[in-house]
Amino acid sequence: MKVLVVGGGGREHAICEAVSRSKQVDKIYCAPGNGGIAELAECVPITPMEFDKLVSFAKEKEIDLTIIGMDDPLVGGIVDVFEAEGLRVFGPRKNAAILEGSKAFSKDLMKKYGIPTAAYETFDDPQAALEYLENAKFPIVLKADGLALGKGVLICQNLEEARDGVREIMEDKKFGDAGNHMVIEEFMTGREVSVLSFVDGKTYKLMSSAQDHKRAGDGDTGLNTGGMGNFSPSPFYTKEVDEFCRKNIYGKTVEAMAAEGREFKGVIFFGLMLTPDGPKVLEYNARFGDPEAQVVLPRLKTDIIDVMNACIDGRLDEIDMDFEDKAAVCVVLASDGYPVSYEKGKLITGLDNFKGKDGYYCFHAGTKATADGIVTNGGRVLGITAKGDTLAEARAKAYEATQWVDFENKYMRHDIGKAIDDAKEV
Prior knowledge:
Pathway: Purine metabolism; IMP biosynthesis via de novo pathway; N(1)-(5-phospho-D-ribosyl)glycinamide from 5-phospho-alpha-D-ribose 1-diphosphate: step 2/2. Residues 107-313 form the ATP-grasp domain. There is one protein chain. The chain has helices spanning 10-20, 51-60, 71-76, 78-84, 94-101, 103-113, 126-133, 159-171, 239-259, 292-296, 304-313, 391-401, and strands at residues 2-7, 27-32, 42-43, 65-68, 89-90, 120-123, 140-144, 153-156, 182-186, 191-200, 204-212, 215-217, 221-224, 229-232, 265-275, 278-285, 327-335, 360-364, 367-370, 373-376, 380-388, 410-411. It is an alpha+beta fold. The chain has 4 domains: 2-94, Rossmann fold (3-Layer(aba) Sandwich), CATH 3.40.50.20; 119-186, Dna Ligase, domain 1 (2-Layer Sandwich); 191-318, D-amino Acid Aminotransferase, Chain A, domain 1; 327-422, Phosphoribosylglycinamide synthetase, C-terminal domain (Glycinamide Ribonucleotide Synthetase, Chain A, domain 4, Alpha-Beta Complex), CATH 3.90.600. Strands 10, 11, 14, 15, 16, 17, 18, 21 and 22 form a 9-stranded antiparallel β-sheet that branches. Strands 3-2-1-4-5 form a 5-stranded parallel β-sheet, with helices on both faces. The radius of gyration is 21 Å and the shape is globular.
């Protein structure tokens, strides 16, 4: 088989690594890819939103399967374009990717089908939103309706912050057109857990629980980012939580999308909050999480090509998914100043230290290959991942491995996975 992966971040590197383990695959292409992906795949200089060029490339190279990693092309309808040309592609169609593309849609879906989530209201007029806030309970959460690179969520502690937030999102358009509409919802407390699942339109198969660290600074301080690290599985995702979510969230979501005429095939990322009142949905994503993919996919023992083909063909119920009984921790190495402003083009040293190291991974996110070597090319540069028999062991190994590589202005959080110290099973 020849496989094309669309995207160029750490998530796509993790997808390429999983695909490279398939005995069915002879050749991997990645568009546009990055400096690390180039070791597994032939990188193609086409951006994810150039649908026509991607279709032409897939036809020219006789690609057997295209895997869409990123949210923007999915929400933009890339799967519909590929299918219209008779090309095999993994990911939800445009009318299903709206599950992530519009927070207002997903909140309304949850309300209609009785899926537990935070109380909310939606707004398309900033003045109406400001008036609503006058009698709101704080803290409160403001969300840009559309895609905002994982950063379109503001937690406001008081009325003044919330007013500023409405202006940022809806008037100043800090997140672009994503802020044309806005969701204001109650602030939920509890542990955050992410659960990834493969879906074929009617059947879902869970991958693993994970826990992200969104804030830029230690102790969950600073601005929201695309994710500064992750660990999997989450010790807080208990058997009782799993049973509740299977009964009230996962299957209900898949059934709700089908009932709405929006059959979902691909990956649904369930962002959950384990509140005192039980698990509730924080958000949905219509693709692998980043960096969740970096701690989940390395543990997947089943051939990922078999799973994806089963999703496309509606026969996921025939697949027995198997994961290593291991834990994994990912620590993101970022450029200092991320997510606001940072320099690019800094030479990365020590990458060869990962070669031949079983259970260690250096997933490239914002990197670029140059004549001088691999250089930084984004805010999140590398995802250093390690597996272990326990979360504590995986965490120690991941932090050890962060010292194997270096670049100017290297920055990371030092408390990724610290929450596992609070859990009974470490």
